[in-house]
Amino acid sequence: MDASSLRRAVDWRLQVVRRRLAARLASTPLVSEDLTLASTAGYQLSARLTRPAGAKGALPGVVLNPGIHQGRAEVEGTGAVVNAAEIARLGYSVLSFDPAGRGSSWGEEDYGGPEHQDDLRVAIKALLASPRCDGKLGVVSLSLGIASSVGALARWPDELPVRWLVDWEGPCDREIITSGGTILVPAAGHTLEDDGYWFPREATRGVAALRCGYVRLQAFPDHAQPTELRHATRMMHAARGGKLPWFQLNDHPRGEVPERPDWLPGGPWAANRAILTKLRTLKGT
Predict the structure, then answer these.
(1) Prior bond to 221 cis, omega within 30?
(2) pTM for this prediction
(3) pLDDT tens digit string along 186-225?
(4) Domains assigned to the chain
(5) Are the C-beta atoms of 258 and 252 separated by less than 8 Å?
(6) DSSP 3-state assignment of 51?
(7) How many CA atoms lie within 13 A of 130 on its CB side?
(8) Which SS3 state, helix, strand or coil, does residue 59 take?
(9) How many CB atoms lie within 10 A of CB 249?
(10) What angle do CA 274, 28, 135 make, to 5 degrees?
């Protein structure tokens, strides 16, 4: 990591921590319960359900799908752009989990591939079956979480009656995921020509098959690759070629693929506000 990237990462984390500390001073009390899920492969998955303490009856649900190298610790604390507590305080029952190979879950890291897609499938079904959820459920996908989010929702549309998917700055294909072959950790030793490895992880290949609404939230600069915006436009064009109930880029009208998009302002404060604002508008839909 070069000096400018390191400064940007440190600044991002400091802003997130400050925001979280301020939010806790006037926070709604929450309750949580730990869950142990089982993937199809037999891996034990660590999960937690968080909701407002005073809530009566079932609430709309959100499954929070973490970004690369993240799990429950990050999306329940200060390590992610939005956390489970912030979403729960909007009146949601929120399920967070450790994908296979992360945190307390068994298995090996899969970088959004078939195993992680099955993990998300298991998490969605667990929340749908919970008496804490009213059946109106969405997925919030952070960064590379989009690989498993689109993969799961496109593979099992009948099993997973999700109402909407919010995608925050997810890298959509092998070129963007690896920054043109320069960031090879998510490749896990596979070449960029290995279609068998990459096809399941490229969200542009699956987004047209979604049966739920789709929201792309994209800032300029991007959180991981500051000058990269092609992943957002590629996802919008792919969505337009499908039969989704609706799709939306930032606050543009639904169904519009603008030639000159209005990008969100950069930074964690703006990103956090954009995600929470969008979740307020989607609640109950």
Answers:
(1) yes
(2) 0.92
(3) 999 999 999 999 999 999 999 999 999 999 999 999 999 9
(4) 3-282 (3.40.50.1820)
(5) yes
(6) strand
(7) 30
(8) strand
(9) 24
(10) 70
